[in-house]
Design brief:
mainly alpha; two-stranded antiparallel ribbon; 3% strand
Length: 294
């Protein structure tokens, strides 16, 4: 009689060290892919440096021209201790960051139209989210370069220097607003049919959001209805704390940095609002990215 031997059970579960090795391998591949695609974007910038040059010259021109426009403004018009250079610099910083982030979807859109994005989508990537991560890192790096130039230029134009801790806080605020707007722009790049539509959205939203914020004038200068709109504008919640940092070296997380029709907001409140805004945008575009990357 033939003896039948039952097959041994095979354990398909990963041992803890195997699972950790797998995760670390995926993260290493994700980092490598993100680095390679980020390097590609910087190579494109090196070949076409006019983008960076224009992004630096434009805010510098805004600083010089608007500073000259209000050069003879009565002292104390924008506050007891505030000159217009100090008032304008935070607005230019955030508007430059916002404009650059809003354009983040254009390279992805051109990759879509030229067929390069399809090659990336069929490539054996560990995760296609490295495409989004690379674009985000690229825009954040460019924005920090522009922000540094604006801070230095505004100091020579009379705005002064924030404290060292203030510069760190400015970098955090810029990072949050750029993260949110870049995610929105990338979502639009995957949702809209072509670059013409994306450019139209950029043109329609860019200047209205600038003028419906406190970048160029304080809230109490505005009509009542515009004050309400500006108080709902995320750019206002990024501009006002930076303006406070320029004037107060002894700020803290509980310092009241802005007043709106809804009440007073501390530095901590503003950071939570910007963080919530970024999280909302990231969650909103998740279904779209999953659909495109499927």
């Amino acid at each position: 009689m033939t003896q039948i031997i039952a097959p041994e059970k095979v354990n398909l579960t990963f041992a803890p060290n195997q699972s950790d090795n797998f995760k670390s391998g995926v993260m290493a591949e994700f980092s490598q892919e993100t680095l390679a695609m980020t390097k590609r974007l910087f190579i494109q910038l090196q070949r076409r440096p006019s983008t960076l040059i224009a992004g630096i010259i434009q805010p510098f021109m805004w600083l010089v021209l608007f500073g000259a426009l209000f050069y003879n403004a009565p002292k104390g018009l924008f506050g007891n201790e505030l000159n217009y250079a100090q008032f304008l610099a935070p607005g230019i910083i955030i508007f430059t960051a916002f404009s650059g982030a809003l354009n983040a979807g254009l390279p992805v859109m051109f990759d879509r139209e030229f067929g390069f994005l399809n090659r990336l989508l069929v490539a054996p990537l560990s995760t296609r989210y490295s495409i989004v991560a690379a674009s985000t890192i690229y825009i954040i790096a460019l924005t920090f370069i522009q922000t540094a130039v604006i801070v230095i230029a505004s100091a020579f134009l009379g705005a002064g220097w924030p404290s060292l801790a203030g510069l760190g806080a400015i970098a955090l605020i810029v990072f949050l607003i750029v993260l949110a707007v870049t995610a929105l722009s990338l979502g639009l790049a995957f949702a809209l049919p072509g670059h013409i539509e994306l450019i139209a959205v950029i043109f329609v939203t860019n200047l209205p959001l600038l003028f419906a914020s406190t970048a160029l004038a304080p809230l109490n200068f505005m009509a009542g209805w515009l004050q309400i709109i500006a108080s709902l504008n995320p750019l206002t919640y990024a501009i006002e704390p930076i303006r406070y940092l320029y004037l107060h070296s002894d700020w803290s997380i509980n310092s009241v940095v802005m007043e709106t029709p809804w009440g007073e907001f501390s530095f901590g409140n503003v950071l939570l609002i910007l963080l919530a805004f970024a999280a909302l945008i990231l969650l909103t575009i998740q279904p779209l990215l999953k659909k495109r990357f499927a």
